[in-house]
Specification:
Distance between the termini: 36 Å
Radius of gyration: 18 Å
Helix content: 25-40%
Bound molecules: adenosine-5'-diphosphate, magnesium ion
Strand order of the largest sheet: 6-7-8-3-9-11
Structural class: alpha/beta
Strand content: 15-25%
Number of strands: 11
Oligomer: single chain
Largest sheet: 6 strands, mixed
CATH topology of one domain: Rossmann fold
Length: 248
Amino acid sequence: MTTKNDAPLLCGKNVTRVFQGGRNQKTIAVDNVDFAFRRGEIVSIVGESGSGKTTLAKIILGLLSQSSGELLYKGIPRDISTHRLRRQYWRDVQAIFQDPFSSFNIFNRVESVLLDCIRLLGGGALPKEEKAERMREACSFVNLPFDEIAGKYPFELSGGQMLRLMIARIFMLRPNLLIADEPTSMIDACSRATILEMLLKLREETGMTVVFITHDIGLAYHISDQVLCSPRSSRSLTSSLTKRPLRR
Ligand SMILES: Nc1ncnc2c1ncn2[C@@H]1O[C@H](COP(=O)(O)OP(=O)(O)O)[C@@H](O)[C@H]1O
Ligand SMILES: [Mg+2]
């Protein structure tokens, strides 16, 4: 794939998503949003509940299509029209969602969640010991005891452990872009700080771009290079997003 190296990692131009309900009802969940995420930067998207943050996250991930507008990945129009192109895109762009339990197939053990990552990276044929070593390393980054949890099912883990397992996946996959959609809203304040530290450390190590979706505007300003807000007057994210570079 040809790309332009000096271009932002991901750009959105006039991205809009309309949901059609029954009886001509429609919801404009994302309304004409423009954005540009540069390489290695932390961007926060702040907006009240229902303002279209998760919808935008899903469009960025390619799990939902936009009704209109365009996405540019590495400077060229994003193409995820085939299975192969989607797989390639998902190696680069990954997410951690609000409800960690909804992100996994509940019939998959912890070990198979991590083995999937190895396979996605093309390591399916590696010797068993080498695979275990990689999984152990990823778990140790997030302080999870791999040998204890490898055979467990997602519902046997606590919310905090599940989140850490998701971060272990990100540690293995090393995407260019991570979208973290209110990842810490389900856990206590103490674990929240630890999770945030892990994400920031991972960003430091990998240079990935992190898009952090949150309610917490104070936190957003504290950690971000760029903050996108939905205006008070509107219920959807719009192009009047105030883009305020953080004073460090
Ligand atoms: N699949 C869907 N079908 C219909 N409406 C939806 C769907 N997903 C989200 N919406 C609506 O779009 C709006 C934005 O939702 P969402 O993106 O989840 O907001 P946020 O993440 O900011 O809380 C809401 O009004 C929601 O009800
Ligand atoms: Mg949401």
